[in-house]
Design brief:
Structural class of chain A: mainly alpha
CATH class of chain B: Mainly Alpha
Largest interface: A-B, 49 and 53 residues
Shape of chain A: globular
Helix content of chain B: over 70%
Strand content of chain A: under 5%
CATH architecture of one domain in chain A: Orthogonal Bundle
Number of domains of chain B: 1
Largest sheet of chain A: none
Largest sheet of chain B: 2 strands, antiparallel
Helix content of chain A: over 70%
Number of strands of chain B: 4
Radius of gyration of chain B: 20 Å
Strand content of chain B: under 5%
Oligomer: heterodimer
Number of helices of chain A: 17
CATH topology of chain B: ABC transporter involved in vitamin B12 uptake, BtuC
Order of helices and strands of chain A: HHHHHHHHHHHHHHHHH
CATH architecture of chain B: Orthogonal Bundle
Strand order of the largest sheet of chain B: 1-4
Order of helices and strands of chain B: HHHHEHEEHHHHEHHHH
């Protein structure tokens, strides 16, 4: 029953996402061809292969580990976007909430010498606070969450730069290495690193992010609380009429969404994989890439796990292209094209549905004609 | 002091141009969140034109060519938003965000490709234009007059006249308020919205070139335009979708932005010894506070953000 399969909402989303990916890669390939036709094929293959470009399986595992390390924060950011979007809010402030998470996680780790789990909680609190500001402004002052989110992103960036300047190395713009200055704040590996050829950055953070995806899915889809939130998103006035506290729901949603983004930041920075550069001039792209991952994953937490991995995979893959011809940003370009195409998902589903309806109508007409013929024979 | 006025006017020019763009697009019913990306693309078009114009071109030629190139790049790029949001009824927020990411990534890839093709060792995303840039500057005493300021003033007057004094402008606004009613009296809503988005693209592109020629004579395209497109949207809301109020709001925002460049020149500000990050934050903090107080009685176009579907009339 092929037709019934296509009617399934999940299958449609998957198909639409795959179309976006294929078209995105194709357009990226065309751009590469325009820049320099001689190496375009090799370059696009490099982007898609990422860690598979290494021939030894041990090295492959090690670099797969690196991709996973960066997938965890991306997944958290996309969960943050999804959570808000299901309640009808477009939380572009995820980028700033992520940034705030970086700030407080590292500050708690280095300045206060806190253990790792306290640092994660601190990061969540920082993100939640920013989310709360956006939520309060939305609920009580009617400020669009997109605009307040964008403003807060920039304010947070400068605040975090100021805060982390207090814990940076004297001769460089980077914060202190956690391995030397705050080893207690490193998220424990629990032997996971061994699976990835002793990659010290592979830690509990990765399973934790996946667990959060499942939790978000259950909360949104299977609980009364999640139902209330989604009802508020669908129709604010109807929800109010049914006795739901619609203002409170908006604020709570953005607090949770912010906490998810903040937690994502701690899951990356508390592995020691990266240090914060205190002269950073633009809001980290992780939050914006979260938007890509969320929409590519069909706005479903489980889909987001796959799409986050894919987007991180090609982003890191971009770093391997031949720099004498192309630049690493080609992956950013491909992700951006994919988000743009995600805007057409609704249209694609519409086409699929009308296609199904048409073919079904045709089949029904045929059936009717057949039975009539039979009737004529008798 | 002169420097402060000069920077204020320059930044205000950028904000006015881009916010007017946002205003026209929203008045026609389409939220243009992609202004940031449009600015980047417009800036790239203008910068590359400056780089490739033959040396010794007269000032007038340089000025016109750069303005046309920037506006045209912005206009063409904004058609991506128009086709997705008007014809395919895509979510305007997603497409706008995509346009921002695409603008910075695309400009970086293109400029790097051009740089690397010219010189294999050059992998930067920088375009330099120190000489042609002089065409735009006229020194009046210690004040450096910038032709873009004049362009902005003209644009402001034209937009105001177009919106309130022409048939086209009034029809455009009708499409943002009540597209069904506009359609019922024979106005083609899709066409008007296309026009709104394309004009906003041209203005956004102009804003981009003004932004990157302000104060510097080279630009690294990886940086995008540092949130100015979004700041312009805040200016537009603060200006309540009205060109004159937008201009006043832009002057205020421009002043605070300029302070972060020149605060060291003021003894009392330098004595406070605040980190420069504080001044960088100011425009954003002010806009948040202002928005908190003004958004309750917002006069946003009623139908903005809702794709028009003829079938649902």
């Amino acid at each position: 029953m092929k037709k019934n399969l296509l009617k399934n909402e999940g299958v449609q989303s998957l198909l639409a996402s795959l179309i976006c990916i294929v078209l995105g890669l194709l357009l990226g390939f065309i751009v590469l061809l325009l820049i320099n036709p001689s190496g375009a094929g090799e370059a696009i293959v490099t982007v898609i292969k990422n860690f598979l470009t290494y021939s030894k399986p041990e090295t492959q595992m090690k670099y797969l580990g690196n991709t996973l390390v960066k997938t965890a924060p991306l997944l958290m950011c996309s969960l943050s976007i999804i959570f808000a979007y299901k309640v009808g809010l477009f939380n572009i402030g995820t980028a700033g909430q992520y940034c705030a998470g970086v700030g407080l996680a590292l500050y708690a780790a280095i300045a206060w010498q806190m253990p790792w789990w306290v640092c994660i909680l601190a990061a969540m609190a920082a993100g939640a606070l920013l989310g709360a500001i956006s939520g309060l402004l939305k609920a009580y002052c009617n400020v669009n969450e997109v605009i307040s989110g964008i403003m807060l992103n920039w304010i947070t960036l400068y605040l975090v730069n100021m805060l982390l300047t207090l814990v940076k190395e004297e001769t460089s713009p980077y914060t202190f290495q956690l391995t030397t200055h705050a080893p207690q704040a490193l998220i424990p590996s629990l032997g996971l690193g061994k699976l990835f050829t002793n990659n010290q950055y592979v830690t509990l953070a990765i399973p934790l992010a996946i667990v959060m995806a499942v939790v978000v899915w259950i909360v949104l889809d299977k609980t009364r609380f999640g139902y209330e939130l989604r009802a508020t998103g669908n129709n604010k006035n109807a929800a109010k009429y049914c006795g739901m506290a619609e203002k409170r729901n908006i604020i709570v949603t953005l607090i949770i969404s912010g906490a998810l983004a903040g937690m994502g930041a701690s899951l990356l920075y508390l592995t020691g994989f990266e240090q914060w550069q205190c002269s950073t001039a633009s809001v980290p792209a992780m939050g914006f890439n979260g938007i890509a991952a969320a929409f590519l994953g069909g706005l479903h937490p489980v889909g987001a796990v796959l799409s986050s991995f894919f987007i991180q995979h090609i982003t890191i893959g971009g770093a391997y292209v031949d720099k004498t011809m192309y630049c690493a940003q080609i992956s950013d370009l491909i992700s951006a094209i994919i988000i743009y195409l995600c805007g057409f998902v609704l249209f694609m589903k519409h086409v699929m549905n009308t296609g199904i309806a048409k073919s079904e109508a045709k089949a029904a007409a045929k059936l009717a004609a057949k039975t009539e013929e039979k009737g004529g024979d008798q | 002091m002169v420097l402060l006025v000069q920077y204020t006017l320059t930044f205000a020019s950028v904000l006015i141009l881009v916010a007017l763009g946002g205003c026209i697009s929203e008045r026609s019913g389409v939220i243009n969140l992609g202004l940031e990306g449009i600015m980047v693309i417009g800036a790239m078009g203008g910068a590359l034109t400056m780089r490739y114009l033959p040396e010794g071109s007269s000032d007038i030629v340089i000025i016109l060519a750069v303005l046309v190139a920037a506006a045209l790049s912005g206009l063409i790029y904004s058609s991506l938003l128009a086709v997705a949001c008007i014809n395919f009824k895509a979510d305007q927020t997603i497409v706008g965000t995509a346009l921002n990411l695409l603008g910075t990534a695309g400009a970086t890839v293109i400029v790097k490709a051009i740089n690397t093709a010219a010189n294999p060792d050059d992998v930067s995303s920088v375009v330099q234009y120190p000489i042609p840039k002089r065409a735009f500057m006229e020194n009046i005493g210690s004040f450096e007059f910038n032709w873009f300021m004049a362009v902005t003033l003209v644009a402001l007057i034209l937009v105001w006249m177009m919106l309130y004094k022409t048939r086209f402008g009034l029809r455009l606004m009708a499409c943002g308020e009540h597209p069904q009613a506009a359609d019922s009296v024979g106005i083609n809503v899709y066409k008007m919205r296309w026009a709104g988005v394309l004009i906003s693209g041209a203005l956004g592109g102009l804003g981009g070139i003004v932004f990157i020629t302000a104060g510097v004579s080279e630009w690294r395209f990886e940086y995008g335009v540092a949130g100015f497109g979004f700041l312009a949207l805040a200016v537009m809301i603060f200006g309540q979708w009205n060109p004159i109020r937008i201009a006043l709001a832009a002057l205020l925002f421009g002043l605070f932005r300029a302070l972060s460049n020149v605060y060291m020149g003021f003894d009392f500000l330098a004595a406070l010894n605040l980190p420069s990050q504080i001044y960088n934050m100011m425009p954003y903090i002010i806009s948040l506070v202002v928005l908190a107080f003004t958004s309750k009685k917002s006069r946003a176009p009623k139908a903005e953000g809702i794709p028009y579907d003829k079938g649902q009339r």
